[in-house]
Amino acid sequence: EGSRLLNKQGSVGVISIAGSLTNGSRGYGNYMTTYNEIREAMIQAAADPTIKTILLDIKSGGGSVQGLSDTADLVRKVDAKVKPVHSFSGAAMCAAAYWLGSSARRVHASSMADVGSIGVIATHTEYTKMLENDGITPTVIRSGAFKGLGSPYEKLSDKAEAVIQAQVDHMAGIFDNYIADRRGMTVDAFKKKAGEGRVFVGQQGVDAGLVDSITTFDALVSKLESAGSKQP
Hints:
The structure is a single chain. The chain is α/β, with parallel strands linked by helices. The protein has 8 helices and 11 strands. The strands form 3 sheets. A 6-stranded mixed beta sheet has the order 1-2-5-6-8-11. A 3-stranded mixed beta sheet has the order 7-9-10. The relative contact order is 0.14.
């Protein structure tokens, strides 16, 4: 069965990646795309001899960290060993979606597309007041000092906040290093110029070093198809 994400425009295999990125088995329309679906589409496009170039058409503000690295690695391997892979966004290529897009050999965007938002965010929600109002008093019992820190059934302690912050910082460091390497910058230069969660629009992304060209989807497909027809 063919991937729902993959369609062919001449010799260009377009993989549509829209909505929140998750590590599930199957997404839903333009609201959610899973990493498994992206990998399946990549493999199908790589194996199709009529497809000369793969284009990731991204419309996503980001998503889950789990599953992202493996999917990005596949994009890089296909580009390096099988056929060229480019990425494009006419809407948003942010956070996890930018990690994915930057794994292609070149990143393209429209003049009004958002790119960047490179960083990690975690949200803690606790329900103690709501439960108290309902006459419910939960008790959290641990086997160790760090087990289940950040439970929604108790107030966030300083220790739990410090642990969560350390995890966020660790993941952000991996993210920063990956993007800096892909875009040919030092980590310090990247953080000063394009990091810290900044979001850029169109040409701003080019100036920040995150985007290679400003174009339209149709113009890019036409250019890639022309280049693909000249490949042996």
